[in-house]
Amino acid sequence: MGLKIGYRFRFIGSKEELLEKLKILKGQFDDLPVLSVGEIEEIKQASFERGSDISEYHLGYMLLLYFSFHEQTAVQKAHLDFLERVGGVKNIDSLSLRDRKRYARLEKQVHRLSDHRKQRIARSANAVSLSVDVGDGCEYFRITLGRLGDSKAWRGMDCTKTQFADHFVNAHTMVIRLLDLCKEAGILENVSDEGSYWETRDLKVLAENINASTEFMKIASKALTQIGEKKLFVVHNAIDKCANYMNVKSEEQPST
Fold first, then answer.
1. Structural domains of the chain, ranges and CATH numbers in brackets
2. Alpha carbon distance, N-terminus to C-terminus of the chain
3. Could you read off the pLDDT of 108-121 as tens digits, one per residue?
4. CB–CB of 172/165 below 8 Å?
């Protein structure tokens, strides 16, 4: 929960060409007022299973790659449409025998497809990655592009939550600046900015969105805290420590 920026990457070319682009981007990132820029990392084959031979970072990469490489199939769409129609998994047991059997068939097909894709990625996927520590309280910005085997098609996706950044305006606009550079480099496919700053470049619009997000989270935090007091458990919410609001006096002088 919290305002974030999602992004997808895509590049067609050799690993050498992609690495050259990332080297140029790293040099550009180094010139920006961010906390730090990591080294370009090559990620070899990895497993989806947690274990001593795989880091949480590489596991996260594999899962992102899974969703990046594969578009939704007809079976997956039918599965999701079915669940939406009946109101979720919680209602499956109350359906007719015919509908329960249909759901079971779809569920089995989706799992079989998922397992096949995981095995294929685990056997042949490889990737390159570059990360940026944008600022305190802000999630890392990561460029991760992966491919299957020696394919020239590289894809990847990730997101950066800016909601709890110590300096929200600087952090959010910096992520947008990083994405601008990725677009110029020809590796950016699309962006989904919950602050709507990517599309508008309007600080007033960003202010409306972060203020609404913060207010919603404070209300939710208060409700959870009240439940916790009744149930005798303590609720710790990040929004209680960092409630970002924007007051835009002018487009040139944002304040939080």
1. 4-69+122-201 (3.30.2030), 205-255 (no CATH)
2. 20
3. 999 998 888 888 87
4. yes
If you search the block for the tokens 């920026």, which residue do you land on? 5
Output the pTM of the full model. Answer: 0.78
Beta carbons within 8 Å of 47's beta carbon, 6+ residues apart: 53, 54, 62, 122
Residue with tokens 């944008």: 134
Q: What is the pLDDT of residues 157-194, one digit of tens each?
A: 999 999 999 999 999 999 999 999 999 999 999 999 99
What are the structure tokens assigned to 175, written together? 């992520």
Contacts of 7 (CB under 8 A, 6+ apart): 157, 158, 159, 160, 179, 182, 188, 189, 190, 191, 192
Secondary structure of 33-68 as H, E, C letters: CCCEECCCEEECCCCCCCECCECHHHHHHHHHHHHH
Integer Cα distance of 57 and 59 in angstroms:
5
CB contact set of 8 (below 8 Å; sequence gap of 6+):
68, 155, 156, 157, 188, 189, 190, 191
Rounded Cα gap, residues 101 and 97, in angstroms: 6
The interaxial angle of helices 168-185 and 15-30, nearest 10 deg, is: 150
Cβ burial of 214 (10 Å; 0-12, 13-18, 19+) is buried
